[in-house]
Specification:
Layout: H1 6-42, H2 50-86, H3 89-95, H4 100-142, E1 155-162, E2 165-178, E3 181-192, E4 198-210, E5 213-223, E6 229-237, H5 242-247, H6 260-269, H7 275-302, H8 312-338, H9 344-368
Antiparallel strand pairs: 1-2, 2-3, 3-4, 4-5, 5-6
Helix pairs in contact: 1-2, 1-4, 2-4, 2-7, 2-8, 4-7, 6-7, 7-8, 7-9, 8-9
Amino acid sequence: MNPNSILGRYLSKQIVVTFLLVLSTIMGIIMMFDAVEALRRISGREDVGMSYVVEYVITRLPQTIDRVLPFIMMVAAMITFWKVSKSNEYVIIRSSGVSVWGFLMPVLSSVFVVGVINVALINPISSKMYEMHETIKYRFVTRNPEAMLFSSKGLWIREAISEDKILVLKAKSLRQEEDKVLSMQDVIILEMDRQSQIVKRVEALLGELKDNKLNLRGVKVFESGKETKTMSQTEYDTGINIERIKENFIDPDAISVWELPDTIKFYENSGFAADRHKMRYLSLLSSPFLLVAMVLISALFALKTNMRQGGVMFLIIAGITTGFVIYFLSQLIYAFGINGYIPIWFAVWSPTLVVTLLGISAIIHKEEV
């Protein structure tokens, strides 16, 4: 069936509208639970008001929705298929000579478009709000409404060097020269107090991290109320090492799909692995196909030519249970990939491909029986 035909547009409208309704319902439930959690956090804190609750709930929402989006689409598809089956629309469509794949084509096309829109347009907003959420939590912990959680797309790392001094290190580019030597360019160090207020800013053209010492060359020191100092070199004692830098790379969830390729290239050119970022990037690319796979599973359980046969509730429960099993197995395979036991591309794409092929095979077998 042509998705642009009258019937195709009708089916596309049904799945999109149902998806938006289910999405709105799930968003309301998530926001309610997050609001309760935020209220629990601020109990006994006189320095935090309801604005924190609102910001906490709104900025956390996209991250949570991103995780449960396949289930939302699956529920929406099952409701849509159940409605067209109950109203005998499915029987009428099939009786007019439309195959099951002709019936599914408009639905699958619409779902795929929704997935592409989510990755291309919604994800950049979601990643920015995730970064804002982390900043809000950081301000809550530090009790400073002006504190900033540094997480740009270069290297940012924070270290407490004494009871009242914190260092924040930024490097525009870096490269691992030897096993224990890290060279940096365009280095910025912010010396901050415990309230996250900047006390001193140090800029250097070059930096070298070796044996818990950070050597800087071409240094300029900016300090409030004092003249700018220029030095050929200076040195910092630090507990920062290469392993810690690896652990403190920016969370992939805070990077949009459009920026992830450059971020991955940045880390790989620096001599570090970027497996988590690659997994995130490939997961975003595969997400529209995963939504299509979940719709196929929904069709297997919810599409029936004869609703009088009964067992509808059993099929719906079986479909939802299957969705949870798919999610569990995909997360298990994902963990194998992130730990290097299997190739990254295989860990990301294999669950989607397997579910898609099983869904197609099961629907064909069901039609032949």
